[in-house]
Structures
1.
Amino acid sequence: MTEPLQSLHDSDGDGLELAERGALRRVPGLSTELADVTEVEYRQLRLERVVLVGVWTEGTAADADNSLTELAALAQTAGSVVLEAVRQRRDRPDPATYIGSGKAKELREIVVATGADTVVCDGELSPGQLRQLEQVVKVKVIDRTALILDIFAQHASSKEGKAQVELAQMSYMLPRLRGWGESMSRQAGGRVAGGGGMGTRGPGETKIETDRRRIRSRMTKLRRDIADMGTTRTTMRQERVRNQIPSAAIVGYTNAGKSSLLNRLTGAGVLVEDALFATLDPTVRRSQTRDGRVFTLTDTVGFVRHLPHQLVEAFRSTLEEVTEADLLLHIVDGSHPDPESQIEAVHAVLADIDARRVPEVVVVNKIDAAAPDTLLQLRALVPDAVFVSARTGQGLDDLLDVLDDRLPRPQVDVRVLLPFDRGDLVSRVYGNGEVLAEEHEAAGTVLTARVHSDLAAVLAPYAH
Ligand SMILES: Nc1nc2c(ncn2[C@@H]2O[C@H](COP(=O)(O)OP(=O)(O)OP(=O)(O)O)[C@@H](O)[C@H]2O)c(=O)[nH]1
Ligand SMILES: [Mg+2]
């Protein structure tokens, strides 16, 4: 039994050593390999002192800076201190180490000089890139996707939110478990090819496979749980649809002021924070248009450039509030240096969740803090946008007018005499329809109103 192994070393020694050397050069404790699958479940990045690095492939220098500024805000939201940010101009990220190998060495020097414990890259890196860059800088390297997932994990508070985030984290980790395993299975393969016929599966491969299997079955369970948890919301939504209560959903880039606006409009008391992704769970509130029609307003998770698709997938049931709304209020942060690209990013996510067909009203918020030039540009870009400040209340009247205007209206004109014992019907007409006139006669209340077809059918016997 030892013979074939021995001969393998003889014949293929170099290749094997090379592979082993690659594996040995990993710095203990910094590895992205998981010691145990439970690490995926409870993995906390615990970023402390970070250096940011970006590759600037297209757009202006200002675009590149905005991107790193956003990465810094994300890192801070995740609880870390940003020590330094560097970027490199390249046609495309280096396939091996993301930044060029020379720059990677410089980065190592920055890491040493600043005492950083983590490098955060402004993009989604392949497992190989993460591994190879880690080998050069010798501290933990994570990408923007992992950072966003970490913020979501910290902010998730409901059972559903937690399950959704965990599902997203697992689907991010699954392909990344390969890291070490790849070289291990090559080793095992080599051994077999070398003529041993034994050890068709190396120890690494076996462990990776077990981990993968456990993660997959956990993901299946999470998907099932999430589907179950979404049913209450689906039921409520169906109820609204049945009663033909119009719904507006607030969407927008993270930190645009969505929750602030919901609070302003409905007094909902939703958490407002100068932090990215403060809101993860949807909040639905009832409100009324000025002409007294009831509608619902939903606040939901904010979007971001390149929102990790794992999150979009995991939050799909939550995002149905958006997909199935009658109207989208797209909140834009007018005080941001580049609101235009934020609008584009939001549209990209909306397209991804199939919500572009829902009518949209652009609401430029934070006009109290916005640069006049930016507002002019936005006015030109979106001529029918509404300009508001959730903070000062400025422009909210205009927004209410727009809601009056754009929320679907009842279609059927009716004139009915409702007996006094049918106060319930009077309330329904007021709640779901649009009352044009009310008179009182000896036999009851005469309403001239516009209502939805369902209610019109109920009212038919009372036509006057
Ligand atoms: N100056 C100014 N600041 C505002 C205005 N509206 C909201 N803010 C601030 O913007 C920050 C984000 O507000 P939120 O309402 O939490 O924003 P959000 O869009 O719900 O954010 P996420 O849920 O994290 O995606 C907070 O610090 C608010 O105080 C405004 O009209 N003017
Ligand atoms: Mg919010």
2.
Amino acid sequence: MRIIFALVVLAFAYIKYTISTTKETNPYAGEVQRVALTPEQEVQMGLQAVNQMAAQHGGLHPDQVAQDFVDKVGAKLVTHTNSILEPGAKPIGYPFEFHVLRDEEAVNAFALPGGLVFITAALLKKFQSEDQLAGVLGHEVGHVLAKHSNQQMAKGGLFAGVGQAVAVLVGGDGGMGGHTTGSMANKVLSSKFARDDETESDTIGAELMKQAGYDARQLIEVMKILQESSGGGGGPDFLSTHPFRRAGSIT
Ligand SMILES: [Zn+2]
């Protein structure tokens, strides 16, 4: 009886997932993916979150020279997004923006859906070359182009359903134990996809670097910088979410 109920929960989650999301081939990553939002909605969502995200890192950095430099490198990369389009695919034309955050402590970079890319002053001051900055910005541009946030949002509903089904199977009648098991299943599934996303962003970032004339081998140096920075502890930073797993194999 419990198995039947779990299967019913799973079936409903899957039906909801297929109805509320769109299946498409990503024009840049070539991956067939389910997404929850249109590119216009992604841009809207990014703009809604921008102030809050910036505030978490002390707001935007007042150093206009640093900001101009980051703008220049970011622009050089995104000029080449059309050259990595899948054959026959139409460009999306995300309105990319690059922002330096005032935070001098947290070594971090991240992207919001729709094209907003952020880098902290703490990470920026560690770079020894423009190529290294291009490596991090290219990786973040990769997340945007491959629509990773959008994809995670679409999967979120499905994962919750799978979690509930597992909870029904293992945890009896929805007690605390079952709830925890469900969340754990959810976490395991999410993190597996997240690792694939990092690899995909590394690949897109490295390709944009090459097209823009940057040395993609500098990603190895970026990885060293990130590893050294994470040694001191101090909470989640770029390395924990951006392991650059393939950096060692980029040539
Ligand atoms: Zn990443």
3.
Amino acid sequence: MRIEITRVIDVPDELVGVNALEAIVREEGFALMRELFGTLWQRFQALHWRCPQCGSREVESAGEKTFDLLTAFGKVDLPRQRLECQQCGTIAKPLDDWLRALGEHRATWLVQELACLAGASWPFEAAETIVERVLLGPISHEQVRQVSTADGERVATQLATEAQAVLEAPVMDKGAEDPQGINVVVDGDWVRSRDNPEGMEGKVGVVDTGVAKVGKDRRKLVNRRYAVTFNGSDLLGKLVDAEASKLGVEQAQRLRLLGDGAAWEETIQAEHFPRAKRVLDLWHLERRIRRALQSVFASQPDELILQREKLRCWIRQGKAEETLAELRGFAERYREVPKELAKTIGYVERHRSAIINDEADLATGKHVGSGAVEKAGDLVINRRFKGRRGMRWWRKNADALATLRVLYLNGDWDQHWLQRRSYPPKAA
Ligand SMILES: [Zn+2]
């Protein structure tokens, strides 16, 4: 079909600069796009002037209803024709399947994608501002919240289903490139909750196939993939398992599980990675030891520095027993052992087998231990869910948004939206 569309635009003769010019062109351009959208909608509606049930063209108008749709160039009001079939009596609206394809929101996929990206990245108020600037139209932060959490929920369900499938039929043919084995990092971060006064824990897993040098001093993890859930370690175990499976975990020569020693890590290891070497995150271990030493040598700054340096070397060399003996020696000086010292002794005792000699890895730049755990939680959880005025979250919403963040971090975002936009919708 050929469309001719004309539009008369009044432009002030006195303009103050390119910004004013841009504003006019954008506003008028968007208005033109909305007009074209409406005109084409009417044309297509006319082309579908028949009964969807029996195919008869003997249909009569049975009124009109407006459907307000948010598009990439603002809101359009679409007249929806109701038709009554004279043959079979069916009442239907042409193009209804077009609108059904958008799901539960009155917004095109482009708008929904934008709302999801903004909602997963920034606080809802900021997300609202950004989406409004792009669309030149009103969208509320409540709409951003609804669209992004609905989509995140859908993705989370899909990932959980996939993970269950992987568990039942492990992927065996992947993993051609395996220079350094596979590292699995797990971490939990607490977020303020609306469901629970004690807060709730977002659990994060990261899988990678080692470390590569980028530039002189920077290193990055290779083939890094994230998993996240606010619904417990059982599910996280499955999700991480599925991501590890994509990287060929079944074939990996070397498999390591890094964490800060939380009890649920052991469960994940037992159920999903029984042959992994457990490694305690150096950053957490060092922090514990620093606190213990602080409680012992608070009044002896020189000694504190010496002891700190000594134990720092020991734990990097995997000298867990020596470290433990040293800490116990400090404890013997007291009738009542300082709390931080007692806690650290317990920590080292519990995790002594996970304190390994990292020096060889440190020397070759393959080391991923220190801070890797902390960084994972920071990226997926803390940056979006903590901060300003103590944000509080419903578990369902936090889980949905964290899932969207992971979708993006894993580089699966474009694929997901291509799939969602395709019409008729493809099966996932
Ligand atoms: Zn009919």
